[in-house]
Amino acid sequence: MAHASITKARTLLVSAQPSRSNPYATLDAAALAAMAAVLMAGVMVLGPGVRFDEPSVSA
């Protein structure tokens, strides 16, 4: 019983073969990270206390 469990565990622990990477997926991930960095920098520059008041209409 224990031997079968150990054998099954060893087969599950065998490392998988590395798959071929997709260069477009790498570029997509880099673009997403760059966009997130720019957006986070914009939030840090503006900060939480920034308000955009609408100008009053003069008649």
SSE class: mainly alpha
Distance between the termini: 90 Å
Quaternary status: single chain
The tally of helices reads 2
Helix content: 55-70%
Following the backbone from N to C, one meets helices and strands in this order, namely HH
Shape: elongated
Rg, rounded, reads 27 Å
Report the biggest beta sheet as strand number plus sense, adding barrel if it closes: none
- Taken as a percent bin, the fraction of beta residues is under 5%
Q: How many DSSP E strands? A: 0
Given as residue ranges, the uncertain stretches (5+ residues, pLDDT < 50) are none
User: What's the mean pLDDT score?
Assistant: 83
Structural description of this entry:
The protein is 61% helix and 0% strand. It has helices at residues 2-13, 23-46. The mean pLDDT is 83.
Strand and helix layout:
Blueprint (H helix, E strand, L loop, with lengths): L1 H12 L9 H24 L13
Features:
59 residues; mainly alpha; elongated
In short:
This protein has helices at residues 2-13, 23-46. The chain has 59 residues and is mostly helical.
